[in-house]
Amino acid sequence: MLGLIAPGCALLPSQLVAHTGIEAFWWIGPIIVLIMIPLLDIMVGDDDSNPRDEDYERLSRDRYYRWCTYLFLPIQLAGLAIAAYLWAGPELDLIDKLGLAATLGLVSGIGINAAHELGHRVERSERWLAKIALAQSGYGHFFVEHNKGHHARVATPQDPASARLGESLWMFLPRSIGGGFRSAIHIERDRLQRRGLRWWSVHNNILQAWSMTVVLFGALMLVFGLGILPYLLLQAVIGFCLLETVNYVEHYGLLRSRLPSGRWARCSPADSWNSDRLVTNIFLFHLQRHSDHHANPGRRYQTLRSTQEAPQLPAGYATMILLAAVPPLWRRVMDPRVRAHYDGDVTRANIAPHKRERILASYGLAS
User: Rounded to 5 degrees, what angle do the CA atoms 26, 24, 170 make?
Assistant: First the structure.
């Protein structure tokens, strides 16, 4: 249930400001995600305990954990409606409205994580809930690209959502955002063609998800006016940029091995960065156990495990996204870990093509 604190951030600002008079609480989202959680991660530390094998089936079937993700949606949407009301009113100045948009944007990005969990399920109802959770960020094509694109190509040069060694976050973001969009269009178009359907079909998963954003934003503007549109768009951009920053952290520099046939080996826990920081895992439904998720994408979040095979991040996601924003600091922390993961053989890493010669030369290797 502590995972619902994240969407609850969208409900807190108005009450906190009203009861304390402290205007900074409009920025409660960045305060919690970028300051409090990293500090708590350091204070609380890791939890590398795993569910017992004999408990796996019981945990998987336990509907309590499903309802924790289901409840994310009404809290998330209620917070957006309250924010729209406040954006439309004259009470807040521009700085306060921007703070509220930043708070809603972080909730929107974490909402994509809830959609990520729901979108992996085979149950039709949960897959529809995933599309609803993506409506606030306007990132509905993620539903298609993540499941059918990213999971098939993860930790290879062909995956736009897998960051390369030497690639900064600011170079990665446009490549991942644009590449993921194009990939989703191709994947869904091909799926529809195989079923004998046209792009403009009610069965188009991308159009279904995008239409939910149009309905949501349209309804809010109908009620509160066109003046809220810039803030709706801003929080959406912050939301999907948060998602892509997490993507950057999750696979930086990692490359799957090749089979003798030349095909990529099956994804293993060694192909994703793992973190056992307890506090961030609570907030993100165990997303940081990403290595097990990619090796076993059918597992529900409460059953994900930490493995010795998985490379370990030095901190939780909340801290790592701050490091990622400063490329020299990021490379100082992460590049040696990538090299160590491959036993000093950096040629086995997923290296950014335009940085390959420079990186290999820095280690005394020929290209």
Answer: 75
